[in-house]
Amino acid sequence: MKARVKFHQLIFKTPGGTSRGVLKTKDAWFLILEDNGLRGIGECSVIYGLSVETKELVVKKLDDLCDFLNSGKKPDDGFFIDCPAVHFAYEMAILDLQNHSPNVLFETSFTDSGSIPINGLVWMGSKEYMFDQIKDKISQGFKCIKIKIAAIDFQEELDLLKYIRSQFSSDDIEIRVDANGGFKLNEAFDNLNRLSEFDLHSIEQPIAQGNSAEMAVLCKESPIDIALDEELIGVDVETQGAELLQIIKPQYIILKPSLVGGFAKSEKWFALAKENNIKWWITSALESNIGLNAIAQWTSTLNSSMYQGLGTGQLFTNNIPSPLNIKSGALYYKGGWDLNLILGA
What we know:
alpha/beta; Enolase-like, domain 1; TIM Barrel; 3-stranded antiparallel beta sheet; 11 helices; 13 strands; 35% helix; 23% strand
């Protein structure tokens, strides 16, 4: 087996605002495996400040992985313990290689003219900017809107929610909000009460990760269902996952395979969630269409009826041309691939 890496910096069409700052570019590394005329591609995707990896660690780990593979050796799980994004890239590339059909890792109804219902993502920004995004997502046919909050004035964010509910009931539009851990501990419960006026589906990560006792109280007493997101990053699902979920008892968990170590690790989280009567959904982590495609195909094998967070493929000016398309609030696989940005000189 031969292994090599191709770096590609994705550029946002419009800067993406989060509580951790504004994103203008996104680094991506593609792990390319070749064996007996077959090829597999995996994407290593990190979000600095959210992922556990630094750029320097990713570069070194990928170099070490290629040296390992090119010498005929296979890494064990311990090799990836400090770098879940590289683990996911390797898992993805191996699946692509083994399936003998380029970029089809899982043959499901999704790759055969099916679709996956997704939420429309509204980035943080000025009230006017967020207002325009909301109107645009609704006009595009999205039935579920995810709004990032905890960045501008909270009353302005409440005004945006009030506008949506003045036009659409919860039967018409499902609203999820994502605080990205942005609420202060002493304000969180009051904020949740105020948000509850708008019949929200859920809120992601209202307070910063690492405050398990406080999060447990919120999950028990909040008038809105709470979903853990950042809380799962950097947690070893096998040794720490069960205790974390049993302490906090959230209503939902959100899995980003790039951030938790891949599909196998994510499925272990699902098993723990099921044991604790916790629901879940999948979210991409700003991957290119290579990573998004793999996550979408895997998601389609799980037969979930919930809206998934897989609408990030249209964010970049220089994404990898792919069959992924969004229409009327759903993700489709229809068309062909152009891999020149990865495989070209």
